Structures are given as C-alpha cells and as structure tokens.
Amino acid sequence: MIIQRTLRCALIALACATSGVAAAQTYPSKPIRIVVGFAAGGPADVMARLIGQRMTALLGQAVVIDNRPGAGGTIGARAVAESEPDGYTLLLGNTSTLVIGPLIYRQVGYDPAKGFAPVALLGTTSNLLIVNPALPVRSVLELIALARGQPG
C-alpha cells in the first residue's frame, strides 16, 4: 500500500516536472497556417488575409493563408481535420464547411463536432430566402405548403 502511494506520488511529481518543460515553449515557434476552403479573392480569403496580417504583427510569427477551394469548403476542412492537432493549422470555417457540407455529402472525411475546436468568432452573416413576388406565398410555411402541393 505504501509502495503504491509512493509510486503514485513519484509519477505525479515526474508529470509535474516534465510539464514545466512543455509549458516553457513559446507559441508560436513556427509559422501558422490558416486554411480557407474557398478561392483566393473571395470574402473568406479577404477576411483570412486581414486576420493573418494582424496575427503576424501581434505574434511576431508568419501567418500563411492556404486556399483549398472545392466542395463547398469541405476539401479545406478535411485538410485541417487530418492535420496534426498542434495549433499551427487553423480553419476559417463557416456554415458551409461545418454544417451544410456534412449534411449534403456522404463522406466529407471529418466530424465537424469532434474534428475542430472553436478559437474565435470572426463575424456573422444573415441568410435570406427570397422568392419571386408573383408566387402566392408570404412565409416559409406557405412556400413549403406550395412546394408540397405542386411537386416537381
């Protein structure tokens, strides 16, 4: 019993001693990559580049923007989900990469709930549903009823 307690205390002391070595390392010690699942020049790319410039100035480490367009952003999201979870590869995620893609594609290659950890909310946007004013609907429920009543 005493040997088990002593061994347990020694293991805890060893863990505490070695955690100081890991804690002494500064972040970031190498360039940070922000993956954008959309083409260069679009809104997500512009936002990533503005944030990357500011991060570079604040952290004193290069921030590289890596555009991986395709499949509604899921190609870039998959690349991040498969990367080393060390904090040096970030995803500029959005509704398309974290909600819509996993719902409409059979195999996106990542679990949006388990494959990522949120770091910051960068912005919000509104979504609109617009219909031709000639349609006899004034609400989403009326639109759904019309669509169900006239399939195809």
Q: Tally the helices: what do you get?
A: 5
Number of E-type strands: 3
Average pLDDT, rounded to a whole number, is 87
Instruction: State the assembly state of the protein chains.
Output: single chain
What Rg, in angstroms, do the CA atoms define?
23 Å
Alpha-carbon distance between the two ends:
75 Å
Parts with pLDDT < 50 across at least 5 consecutive residues: 1-19
The level of helicity is: 40-55%
Q: How big a fraction of the residues is strand?
A: 5-15%
Widest beta sheet: strand line-up = 2-1-3
**SSE-based structural type:** mainly alpha
Taking the sheet with the most strands, its summary is: 3 strands, parallel
Order of helices and strands: HEHEHEHH
The gross shape turns out to be elongated
Structure description:
Helix content is 45%, strand content 9%. The protein has helices spanning 2-24, 43-59, 74-81, 95-104, 140-149, and strands spanning 32-36, 63-67, 89-91. It has a 3-stranded parallel β-sheet with strand order 2-1-3. It is elongated. Helix 2 (43-59) links the parallel strand 1 (32-36) and strand 2 (63-67). The chain contains 5 helices and 3 strands, in the order H-E-H-E-H-E-H-H. It is mostly helical and 152 residues long.
Structure described in brief:
The protein has 152 residues and is mostly helical. It contains five helices and three strands, in the order αβαβαβαα.
List the helices and strands and how they pair.
Layout (H helix, E strand, L loop, with lengths): L1 H23 L7 E5 L6 H17 L3 E5 L6 H8 L7 E3 L3 H10 L35 H10 L3
Parallel strand pairs: 1-2, 1-3
